[in-house]
Design goal:
Strand content: 35-45%
Keywords: Disulfide bond
Strand order of the largest sheet: 2-3-4-5-6-7-8-9
CATH superfamily: Calycin beta-barrel core domain
Protein name: Apolipoprotein D-like isoform X2
Oligomer: single chain
Distance between the termini: 51 Å
CATH topology: Lipocalin
CATH architecture: Beta Barrel
Family: Belongs to the calycin superfamily. Lipocalin family.
Domain Lipocalin/cytosolic fatty-acid binding: 33-164
Number of domains: 1
Order of helices and strands: HEHEEEEEEEEHEH
Organism: Nicrophorus vespilloides (Boreal carrion beetle)
Helix content: 10-25%
Number of helices: 4
Shape: globular
Low-confidence stretches: 1-14
Length: 188
């Protein structure tokens, strides 16, 4: 029991802790998910703080389809210096055509990673949740195809998150200042 109590802060660092199980939250994902349309560059707009990104800004994610089930995810962000991370994602059950994925991140256990909603052209809402005893640990991201997001799209995203019982706690606004991020978004 001591080990479990000692491990909880480590497991939860930078994730939001909620009571109950993951199934009480976003229990649906994007239907008829299309990897081809999803591939390309995404810029982080909002997120729950998490261990992977810490206090980073300028987060950009490049998604490249490998096959009908798998894609590469290359993330760049700026802490005090630019950081790059290569990840792999794959569909849990490709026959369902939903957006339930597993994400492989170096030195971190494989994560459930769900694309809750996307229009493929302007925004995507992505969520990860892990059950632990009678609580769950959540990460949530809002990404866009451009470093800034239109206020009408923000309204749509907030409505969808409310419908899915997500985003109840404050999300961190990503720092996407063009001058500060130029060496992340482009080669310097």
């Amino acid at each position: 029991m001591f080990l479990i109590l000692f491990s909880l802060p480590v497991l939860a660092y930078g994730q939001q802790i909620f009571s109950g199980s993951c199934s009480e939250y976003a229990n649906t994902t994007m239907p008829n998910f299309d990897i081809n349309k999803y591939s390309g560059r995404w810029y982080e707009i909002y997120r729950y703080n998490n261990l992977i990104e810490m206090n980073g800004d300028c987060t950009v994610i490049d998604v490249l389809k490998v096959d009908n089930n798998t894609f590469n995810v290359d993330m760049k962000l700026k802490l005090s210096t630019p950081i790059k991370m290569h990840m792999k994602a794959y569909l849990i059950d490709p026959s369902k055509h939903d957006a339930k994925l597993k994400l492989r991140i170096p030195r971190i256990p494989e994560l459930n990673y769900w694309i809750i909603d996307t229009d493929y052209e302007t925004y995507t809402i992505e969520w990860s949740c892990t059950d632990f005893l009678n609580i769950n640990l959540q990460m949530l991201w809002v990404l866009a195809r451009t470093p800034q997001i239109d206020e009408n799209i923000v309204g749509t995203v907030k409505r969808i998150m409310k419908e899915k019982n997500l985003g109840k706690r404050g999300m961190r606004i990503s720092g996407n200042d063009p001058e500060n991020c130029k060496c992340i978004y482009n080669k310097c």
